[in-house]
């Protein structure tokens, strides 16, 4: 906390705090009040990545800001473009850690998929990030910077406006509440991204879901379910042992009761593992009480396993079975598979070979 107090990161603080820091700063320097608005405009409207860019401020004021404050900027280490238009950024953080974010164009939508941790401690057996292990939490500034810099990239590259943000990159967002909750506030209040256009995807971190339920904003919640029974689920998602399905469902009921926020259930379809019609029946039963819909994601192959995606005919049979039982089901088209940008394939490939150790489900909310 002390280093933050000395050099507040204006990218990673909630807008109200940024404003009060700036007010205090300019007052102490005997500067007019409108300087605060100028800087706020540069940050949230101009997506400035340096104080130097803030050209309607006198040079001396830009220098003073740079001495007192920080603006987190990520280094774009590599950009990969898929044949289907998906673009993946490999970002290098200040300490050398590598993370990824993905821009996914689809019709009028442009979705940005962001990372919340360097690596992941959840160790889900079907996920490449899970096999990498956990390195560290990202700061709010490092999460918000992915959005700011992706927006600049999208503007310059003619991708258009980012319409949706999903926390489906590397990491388990609800295991990093210290940064993720402020990030939500910053995106919503600072950059005016509507809450319902922001999706938090989780393997089922109960305290985090309960905290989301308490927020007045209607953020969208996606739950990575992947199996309707505890035993099978635990073999895919180790966290199931800590927060078993009955507890998870209890938290989801609270989330549902708190407002009209619609829950999405994610279900990765792995050939011969979790894709039988009998499981479709139990899945339908499990989610029936929610105003939910189910996203079926064909498994994206990863180096760590021999598993294959469920073939298309069986995938649609599974979807039809859910529909017949009154559950809205969508089959998701994998995007960016050719550049390893699809769901579960993110593992910051520059680190490949460095370490392929599967860690236990530790490293929780520090
Ligand atoms: N930790 C969060 C967010 C990251 S993963 C979560 O698990 O929800 C985003 C989505 O991709 C999740 O639904 C996850 O289960 C899914 N996923 C992971 N590995 C995958 C793979 N190999 N193929 C398809 N989907 C995968």
Describe the structure.
- This protein is an alpha/beta fold and 366 residues long.
- The protein folds into two domains: 15-68, DNA polymerase, domain 1 (Orthogonal Bundle), CATH 1.10.150; 75-359, TIM Barrel (Alpha-Beta Barrel), CATH 3.20.20.70.
- The chain is 36% helix and 18% strand.
- The chain has twelve helices and twelve strands.
- It has a ten-stranded mixed beta sheet with strand order 1-2-3-4-7-8-9-10-11-12, covered by helices on one side. The protein has a two-stranded antiparallel sheet with strand order 5-6.
- Strand 7 (164-167), helix 7 (177-190) and strand 8 form a beta-alpha-beta unit.
- The longest helix is centred in the middle third of the chain and has 17 residues, at 140-156.
- Residues 1-5 and 351-366 have low confidence and may be disordered.
- Bound molecules: S-adenosyl-L-homocysteine.
Give a nutshell description of this structure.
This protein has 366 residues and is α/β, with parallel strands linked by helices. It is built from twelve helices and twelve strands. The structure holds S-adenosyl-L-homocysteine.
Note the main attributes of this structure.
366 residues, alpha/beta, DNA polymerase, domain 1, TIM Barrel, 10-stranded mixed beta sheet, two-stranded antiparallel sheet, 12 strands, 18% strand, disordered N terminus, disordered C terminus, binds S-adenosyl-L-homocysteine
- What is the CA-CA span between the terminal residues? 13 Å
Q: Mind telling me which CATH architecture of the largest domain this is?
A: Alpha-Beta Barrel
Alpha-beta classification: alpha/beta
Topology-level CATH name of the largest domain = TIM Barrel
- Run of helices and strands: HHHHEEEEEHEHEHEHEHHEHEHE
Q: What would the average pLDDT be, to the nearest integer?
A: 92
């Amino acid at each position: 906390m002390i280093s933050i107090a000395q050099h507040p990161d204006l990218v990673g603080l909630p807008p109200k705090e940024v404003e009060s820091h700036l007010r205090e700063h300019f007052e102490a320097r005997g500067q007019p009040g409108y300087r605060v608005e100028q800087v706020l405009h540069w940050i949230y409207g101009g997506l400035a990545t340096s104080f130097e860019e803030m050209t309607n401020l006198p040079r001396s004021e830009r220098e003073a800001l740079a001495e007192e404050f920080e603006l987190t900027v990520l280094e774009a280490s590599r950009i990969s473009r898929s044949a289907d238009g998906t673009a993946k950024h490999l970002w290098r953080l200040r300490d050398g850690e590598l993370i990824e974010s993905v821009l996914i164009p689809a019709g009028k939508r442009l979705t940005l998929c962001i990372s919340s941790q360097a690596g992941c401690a959840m160790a889900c057996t079907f996920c490449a990030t899970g096999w990498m292990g956990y390195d560290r939490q990202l700061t709010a500034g490092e999460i918000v910077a992915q959005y700011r810099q992706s927006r600049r990239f999208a503007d310059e590259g003619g991708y258009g406006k980012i319409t949706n943000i999903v926390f489906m990159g590397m990491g388990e967002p609800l295991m990093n509440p210290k940064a993720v909750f402020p990030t939500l506030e910053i995106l919503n209040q600072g950059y005016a991204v509507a809450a319902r256009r922001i999706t938090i995807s989780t393997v089922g971190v109960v305290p985090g879901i309960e905290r989301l339920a308490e927020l007045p904003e209607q953020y969208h919640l996606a739950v990575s379910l992947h199996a309707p029974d505890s035993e099978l689920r635990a073999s895919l998602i180790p966290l199931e042992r800590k927060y078993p399905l009955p507890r998870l469902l209890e938290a989801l009921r609270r989330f549902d009761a708190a407002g009209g926020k619609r829950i999405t259930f994610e279900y990765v379809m792995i050939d011969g593992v979790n894709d039988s019609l009998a499981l479709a029946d139990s899945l339908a039963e499990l989610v029936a009480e929610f105003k939910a819909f189910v996203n079926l994601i064909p498994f994206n192959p990863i180096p760590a396993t021999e598993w294959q995606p469920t073939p298309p005919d069986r995938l649609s049979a599974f979807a039809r079975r859910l529909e017949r039982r009154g559950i809205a089901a969508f089959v998701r088209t994998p995007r960016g598979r050719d550049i390893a940008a699809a769901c579960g394939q993110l593992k910051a490939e520059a680190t490949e070979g460095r370490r392929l150790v599967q860690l236990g489900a530790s490293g929780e909310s520090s």
